[in-house]
Fold these 2 entries.
Entry 1:
Amino acid sequence: MVMATAINKQKIVHQVFTALSKHVKAKPPESRPVLEQFIYAILRENATRESADQAFKGLLDRFFDWNEVRVSSTLEIVEALDGALPDAETRAQRIVDFLQEIFETTYSFDLEPLLEVLQKKGLKQASKQLGRYQAANDYAVGWVIQQSLGGHTIPLDATAVRTLKRLGLTEDASGLEALRTLVENQVPKAKASLFVDLMSHLADAHCHEEAPACARCPLRQACATGLEAKMPITPAAKKPR
Ligand code: SF4
C-alpha cells in the first residue's frame, strides 16, 4: 500500500467532505426516542441512510406498536423491512431480542427515564450502561450516544472500517476504539453525523467489499488504495517467468 504516513489524514478527511458532499446532503439528526434510536441503529449498521429509513418506515407502517413487533415472528419483521437491507433476518432477531429485554426489565417500551440517567452519568458510563443490552454492539451504542445524547462519537460499522482502511486512515490505529478516536480527532462534532452518512454512501456506491470501483470513485486521488491501483507495474515487480 502507498505509505499512509505520507498522506495527511486531515487532507483525506477534507477530501471526503468536499468530494462526497455534492452526492449526500447534510440532514439534521432525526429526533427519536432512545428506544427507537437503538432500533434504528440496528437497521442502519452496514446500510445507507436511505435504506435504513425505508426499513424503519416499513416497521412503523406494518406494526401497531413496539409490543406488536416484539411478539411477531422474524419472518413478519423481515417482510416489513421491505427488502431494503442485507442480513434482514439477523437484524429482525436482534430487534425482537432487544424489545423483549426492555419489556422484561421495564414492563414498557419507554426508555426516556434511562435517557435522563445517562445524561447525568457522562458519556463513558452511559456507553457502558447501553452496552449491557444483549442486542447492543459498538455501533448501536455509538449511534445512541451520538444521536440521543449529543456526544462526539462516530459509530463505525464494518463497511466504514473497510473504507477507512483503504483510504489509509488506519495505519497507526489498531483496533476499533483506536480507529474511532483517530476519526473523532479529525472530524468536528458538528460534522460527525454527516461523516457517517458519507462513509455509508462511499461504501455503497464505490468502495464495495469485493472489487472496489476505484476508477470511478471521487476519492481516488486522495485514497491510498486508489493511488496504488493507478500505479504502473514496474519491471522489477513483475514475477520472473
Ligand atoms: S478509491 Fe477505491 S479503495 Fe479508495 S475509497 Fe474509492 S473505491 Fe474505496
Entry 2:
Amino acid sequence: MYKPIKDTKRIVRDYVQQPPLVPHDVSRYEISKNFNKCMDCHSSSRYVEMNTTRVPVTHFKSRSGQELSNLSPARYFCTQCHVPQVDAKPLVGNTFKK
Ligand code: HEC
Ligand code: HEC
C-alpha cells in the first residue's frame, strides 16, 4: 500500500465535469452496505458543522433524472469516482493538459 497524502485543501479540478479528488486520507473510512462514513461529514445535514463540501443535488437523482430523497445507489460508493491521493510517482507517463 502507498502512503496516503497528508490532509490538504481542496484540489483544483482539471476539467469541469471532473469528480473532485479527495484531499484527505480515507483509508480508515468504511463504505459498506450498512454504513457510509463519508456522509458523516459531507451530508446536507452535517456539512456546515463539519466545514466540508455538501454532496451535490446531482447525487440525489436517478439515472433517468428523477429526484430522490436519498443518495442515488449509483452514487453510494463515493470512491468509485472520487479518488483519494497517495504520495507516489505515476506508474505510466501521461501528457494530459488542462
Ligand atoms: C471527518 C470528516 C470527513 C469525512 C469522514 C470525509 N471527509 Fe471528505 N472532506 C472533509 C473536509 C473537511 C474537506 C474539505 C477540505 C478543504 O476544503 O480544505 C473534505 C473534502 C472532500 C472532497 C473535495 C471536495 C471539493 O469540492 O473539492 C471530496 C471529493 C471528499 N472530501 C470526499 C470524501 C469521501 C469520498 C469520503 C469517504 C470515503 C470523505 N470525503 C469523508 C472531511 C471529511
Ligand atoms: C458515479 C460517480 C460519482 C460517485 C459514485 C460519487 N460522486 Fe460526487 N461527484 C461526481 C461528479 C462528476 C461531481 C462533479 C459534478 C457534480 O457536482 O455533480 C461530483 C461532485 C461532488 C462533490 C463536490 C460538490 C461541490 O459543490 O463542489 C462532493 C462533495 C461529492 N461529489 C461527494 C460525494 C460523496 C460523499 C459521494 C458518496 C456518497 C459521491 N460524491 C459519490 C461523481 C460521483
